[in-house]
Amino acid sequence: MARSIVSIPEKFGGAPHVEGTDLTIAEVQAYWSQPGIYAAQIRERFPELSEAELGAAVTWAEPKDPKHHFIAERSEPSRQRFTICGEAGDWSVLIETLDEDGAVFSSKDYWEATLEDALRYFQEDGLENLAWTDAETGLSVDLATLIDAK
């Protein structure tokens, strides 16, 4: 099982690294970005990392806060939480099914270029009437008005 990429303030000054190692993501990415370095060389240089860990390290990017973040929930027929976040050209959709304690036991995620395309997942499932809330302010929001405001 692949280890996670983590940031711990007390280790490497909080720089992201592969959990349980002394390898920072910056170190792996710096080696990988050198001219003439191929998969065989990076595997040889970092034998303690699995293929999955190497892949995660070389493709890792600093997370950014989305410009927009909206949430909605429903309780019937099953309890679900819905999240749409992003900005023009980069929207993510997260659909989580929750157990009776509120813990996530299954989820699906999608990426779309437009908010209109992101909302299509809810329309296809008959969920176009969800009550959306801005996650930052807690205020209700009509996502259709954001589409119309383009």
Automatic annotation (TrEMBL):
<dbReference type="InterPro" id="IPR009057">
    <property type="entry name" value="Homeodomain-like_sf"/>
</dbReference>
<protein>
    <submittedName>
        <fullName>DUF433 domain-containing protein</fullName>
    </submittedName>
</protein>
<dbReference type="InterPro" id="IPR007367">
    <property type="entry name" value="DUF433"/>
</dbReference>
<dbReference type="Pfam" id="PF04255">
    <property type="entry name" value="DUF433"/>
</dbReference>
<dbReference type="InterPro" id="IPR036388">
    <property type="entry name" value="WH-like_DNA-bd_sf"/>
</dbReference>
